[in-house]
Amino acid sequence: MNEATCTRCQRPLRAATSLAQGMGRTCARRARTEAQYKPAQIEKATELIEDGAIAATPIRTGRGRRVFVVVASSGTDRYFTTCTACTCASGLRGRRCYHRLAAILAA
């Protein structure tokens, strides 16, 4: 029996919508999110995760979202970030930063 697998993570697909999309709902959500970011931001966010420069804290927001601490590219500064906000300069201006993307991918 041939089993369809997700094009991103290679896990088996069972739901009809997942089979139609070619990926599971989590991978589809991540793909939609990544489409809003520039390729350089995706690369930096992936690098943050691979280098272990992002870590979940025991802190939660009022809505129960995880708060992450992220090491800045300088290596000395640290930012607090969630899936919706970040304390870096871009995040404070309401822009999408790669720290937020890393939090989304790590969550």
Average predicted local confidence, pLDDT: 90
- Total helices: the number is 5
Uncertain runs: none
Provide the succession of SSEs: HHHEEEHH
| CA-based shape | elongated
Q: What gap, in angstroms, lies between the N and C termini? A: 34 Å
Give the total of domains: 2
Secondary structure: helix percent: 25-40%
List the strand order in the largest sheet: 1-2-3
SS content category: alpha+beta
Number of strands: 3
- Rg on CA atoms, Å: 16 Å
What share of the residues does DSSP label as strand, in percent? 15-25%
Structure, explained:
It contains five helices and three strands; from the N terminus they run H-H-H-E-E-E-H-H. The chain is an alpha+beta fold and 107 residues long. It has two domains: 1-35, no CATH class; 37-106, no CATH class. Strands 1-2-3 form a three-stranded antiparallel sheet, covered by helices on one side. A hairpin with a 6-residue loop joins strand 2 (66-71) and strand 3. It is elongated and about 45 Å long.
